[in-house]
Amino acid sequence: MYEPERITVGLDDSEAGIVAVRWAAGRALEHPCRIRIVHVIDQTDPDEAWSRHRLGAGKWLVERTAPGTEIELESHYGDVTDRLTQIAADDDLLVIGSHRRRRLQSTLTGLLPDRIAGRATVPIVIVPDDWSGQRNGAVVLAVDADTAQNVVDFAVHEALRRESVLHIVHSWREPAPVGPATTALMQEDPTVYGQSGSATLDRVVERVSRVDGHPAVTPHLVHSTPAEGVLSVPGDGALVVIGRRHRTTLVGAARGSVGQDLLRTSKNPLCVVPDRQHDGIPDGATDRDR
Q1: pLDDT value, residue 108
Q2: What's the pTM value of the predicted model, to 2 decimals?
Q3: Are 10 and 20 in contact (CB under 8 A)?
Q4: Sign of CA dihedral 253, 258, 261, 262
Q5: How far apart are CA 264 and CA 116, in angstroms?
Q6: How far is residue 3 from each of residues 208, 235, 270, measured CA to CA in Å?
Q7: CA–centroid distance for 71 within its chain
Q8: Of the candidates 290, 272, 274, 279, which has an alpha carbon nearest to the alpha carbon of residue 125?
Q9: How far is CA 143 from CA 133, 155, 172, 199, 243, in A?
């Protein structure tokens, strides 16, 4: 029996914000949730009446989708990234929307989804504004050799909640040749990298198999970039899960990372789970048993 899940939704002034509320409302229809909808007011141009209107629209959407859901409405002044990550620090999920193609047309567009995902201490779901609305897709977990156990555990619990298959994807590519041609010829056979990738994938699958009542698992070893590997898994409405090892943005030093690539290319919601060990988050600091 699951306890009610605590979700904070960042609602901005765009369609992407409404899509984020719609995703959270659909989740409340699947299992008990407590949803807090937060609107951060621009201090340079405050409009409290509009904030109340926007929060009311979000509440109406949740009530229509999942009657009986406990809903809290909050408006705050301040920096969006700081306020949302602070408010959600003790919750189970933070949910925001993002414009996948129109990245400059909303408060939570541009680099803000990346900054919020980089600062959050709880799993954050980023819902693209062109999300199909389907929720019955599988869970897709992108892994590498350093994927933390708490990231794997989150994906396992999500698959169990959905009663769906857990697709575990590991992508590999051989390094580009460097140096003179004679040096390049002496480098390792590319198959070595494929074998190493296979071993990485097998280790994660074995970890999942040790979980009591674990979901069905489909492993995917893909010769591609990590984002291309995730996108190669068929299915609409999937939840894509990736880990985040450092409390920073998904771009900048990490430009070209799987998270940034997926924000740009995938129509499915992306869940970024902070790696507790690398991120300095004590075990049990923010999550409760799912």
Answers
A1: 46
A2: 0.85
A3: yes
A4: negative
A5: 16
A6: 23, 29, 23
A7: 22
A8: 272
A9: 26, 11, 11, 12, 8
Structural domains for the chain: 5-128 (3.40.50.620), 139-279 (3.40.50.620)
Cβ count within 10 A of residue 123: 24
Q: How far is 32 from 159, CA to CA, in rounded Å? A: 17
**Considering only CA atoms, which of 3, 290, 24, 274 is closest in space to residue 157?**
290
pLDDT for res 252:
37
**What residue has token string 């009657």?**
67
Low-confidence ranges of the chain (pLDDT < 50): 1, 104-110, 185-186, 249, 251-256, 280-290
- In this prediction, residue 148 carries a pLDDT of 92
| Tokens linked to 194 | 């494929």
pLDDT in tens, 113-143: 888 988 999 999 999 999 988 887 899 999 9
- Cα torsion 102, 259, 248, 89 to 10°: value is 90
Q: How confident is the model at residue 2, as a pLDDT?
A: 59
For 183, 190, 193, 225, the CA distances from 187, given in Å and listed in that order, are: 7, 9, 12, 21
- Cα separation of 288 and 152, whole Å? 16
